[in-house]
């Protein structure tokens, strides 16, 4: 199994370019099904979840070409409505195929999604939203759901939780629906705005993304070909910011949208980093030792992102003082804590609450990644630990970070990937 071998103690120095956003590109790739023509997606990151999504599109009949960071998708012909189980169960976002497939083909067969084991990952909000537009579940057998929608009719959808995926599915199911759809308590994440921008570039009538209410006016079933550039990944940017702060280094993070990472910036300044921002890049200098943060709550955007929780816990594990982190979004997203404890961290977890007593230093150990952002947090801990750290099961990292070992090496880290 692939692993990362890290010798800690290096301060990160230099520049790092942030790749395109995983959580923006995945729904946008499924949205290409709405255009029976050519979609050109630029700034697409090379990630495992992108590969899986492109494989599913190919299985459905699309022609896909991926050159450099540009994906060209010809979705003129769709010759299947079955999402392969082995691919669908590899990642959470496969469920976002339902909206566009119902819009385009009026039916789809799909398994319950897979992805990071960070809680039950239910899809009740997706199903409720789609049903309210007229979609039906014909059958559920052995984890496979048979959706059908002879007609999709616009309606008022009220999400009981601002679910990112349910918001995206509702948007994609309403593009061709008869009449108007309002999605209330919609997720406000920047990736939703990127999806709206992509849909509008194809000729769909979508407004309101980033506010709590999204309005979609159904259009006839012909959209135009499109060329679109994906937004930069705010979580990848935050991860390299935290890595710099933890090692007391000084780096320039290039290709960012400052307002999208303001909650991360403010927490790192509170912990002692100096940060200056100019247009689409950020310079960060970490402190000799970070200060503890009394309480951090993960929240839907614009709150502190749950995807940054694990990397931040690594930083707080060596901060000066005691911090409390409350994970309000997912039920079980502290799996990295057990591994950090093997390195000498002093953390107590009770349900969704972690109490982190900062220690002076961590020591290297062999530790095991169990989900995407947990894997990142363990690599970051290895950067500051004394001696050698081996992070096993590093394939989790490949779902959301493009060549992290190469980028950290470029910043002066002593890190080697062994496949
Ligand atoms: C998206 O997941 C992201 N994934 C996640 O990033 C991110 O952590 C999450 O949004 C929150 O920001 C992608 O965009 C591919 P949710 P999603 O629906 O859509 C509950 C990463 O590391 N819920 O907003 O699955 C759910 O259990 C990944 O890049 C229901 O109860 O997140 C969770 O507790 C991890 N019923 C909460 O809502 C539903 O039908 C938030 O889930 C749907 C969700």
What does this structure look like?
By secondary structure, the protein is of the alpha+beta class. It folds into 2 domains: 204 residues, UDP-n-acetylglucosamine1-carboxyvinyl-transferase, Chain, CATH 3.65.10; 208 residues, UDP-n-acetylglucosamine1-carboxyvinyl-transferase, Chain (Alpha-beta prism). It has 13 helices and 23 strands. Strands 21-22-1-23 form a 4-stranded mixed beta sheet. A 4-stranded mixed beta sheet has the order 2-14-16-15. The termini are close together. The mean pLDDT is 96. The site of ligand EPZ has 27 residues, from helix 1, helix 5, helix 6 and helix 12.
Concise structural overview:
By secondary structure, the protein is of the alpha+beta class. The protein contains 13 helices and 23 strands.
Shape: elongated
Q: Domains counted in the coordinates: how many?
A: 2
Instruction: Report the major sheet.
Output: 4 strands, mixed
Share of residues in helices: 25-40%
What share of the residues does DSSP label as strand, in percent?
A: 25-35%
Mean pLDDT: 96
State the CATH topology of the largest domain: UDP-n-acetylglucosamine1-carboxyvinyl-transferase, Chain
CATH level 4 superfamily of the largest domain:
Enolpyruvate transferase domain
List the main descriptive attributes of the protein structure presented here.
alpha+beta; binds ligand EPZ; 4-stranded mixed β-sheet; UDP-n-acetylglucosamine1-carboxyvinyl-transferase, Chain; elongated; 419 residues
Itemize the secondary structure elements and their pairings.
Layout: E1 3-7, E2 13-17, H1 22-31, E3 38-42, H2 48-60, E4 63-67, E5 70-74, H3 85-88, H4 98-105, E6 107-111, H5 124-132, E7 136-141, E8 144-148, E9 156-158, H6 164-174, E10 180-184, H7 190-201, E11 205-207, E12 213-217, E13 226-229, H8 234-247, E14 250-254, H9 262-270, E15 274-278, E16 281-285, E17 295-298, H10 309-317, E18 322-327, H11 335-342, E19 346-350, E20 353-357, E21 366-368, H12 372-384, E22 388-392, H13 404-410, E23 414-418
Parallel strand pairs: 2-14, 3-13, 9-10, 17-18, 21-22
Antiparallel strand pairs: 1-22, 1-23, 3-5, 4-5, 6-8, 7-8, 10-12, 11-12, 14-16, 15-16, 18-20, 19-20
